[in-house]
Amino acid sequence: HFEGPRGSKEKYAKYEVPGDLAGTAGDWREEFPDYLGCCSALDAAVGRIRDTLAKLGLAHNTLVIYTSDHGCHFRTRNAEYKRSCHESSIRTPLIAVGPGFTGGKVIQELVSLIDLPPTVLAAAGLEAPKYMRGRPVQGLVEGTAADWPEEVFVQISEAEIGRAVRTKKWKYSVVASKPADGPQPPGADAYTENFLYDLEADPHERNNLVRDPAYADIRAELADLLKRRMVAAGEKKPAIGPALPERTS
Question: Of 147, 146, 148, 165, nearest to 156 (Cα)?
Answer without folding.
Answer: 165
